[in-house]
Amino acid sequence: MVLDRFSEVVSRFERYASSGEINSTLDDPVAALGALRAAWGGRAGVLLDELDGLTVTLPDGSWFNVRPSNTEPLLRLNAEAADAGAMEALRDEVLGQVRAYGRV
């Protein structure tokens, strides 16, 4: 009997590629969050949820969450998509929008 590493077993069940948490230090995290809400809210088939920051779910099942830190001038981004290429494109688009609001 061959035993797999735990990471190999778990990887069989991973459904999405994930960015992990990416922090951006900004002059005004709340303004950046509002701009993201405005930019993504008007897109066809996009769902917005504001339970914990802003979660945006795209029609293909990809999603991202951006939430402000309670203790630092940060926005924290997490993104997931069906594969690494789609996740990286989504991550990069959102990071570009977030960081357009001025880093400290």
Helix and strand topology:
Blueprint: H1 6-11, E1 17-18, E2 22-25, H2 29-41, E3 47-49, E4 54-57, E5 63-68, E6 74-81, H3 84-99
Antiparallel strand pairs: 1-6, 2-6, 3-4, 4-5, 5-6
Structure description:
The chain is globular, with a radius of gyration of 16 Å. The chain has three helices and six strands, in the order αββαββββα. Strands 1, 2, 3, 4, 5 and 6 form a six-stranded antiparallel sheet that branches. The chain starts with 5 loop residues before the first helix and ends in a 5-residue tail after the last helix. The protein has one domain: Alpha-D-phosphohexomutase, C-terminal domain (TATA-Binding Protein), CATH 3.30.310.50. The model has no long low-confidence stretch (mean pLDDT 88). The longest helix is centred in the last third of the chain and has 16 residues, at 84-99. Helix content is 34%, strand content 26%. With 104 residues, the chain is of the alpha+beta class.
Radius of gyration: 16 Å
| Overall CATH class | Alpha Beta
Spatial gap, N to C terminus? 55 Å
Shape: globular
CATH topology title: TATA-Binding Protein
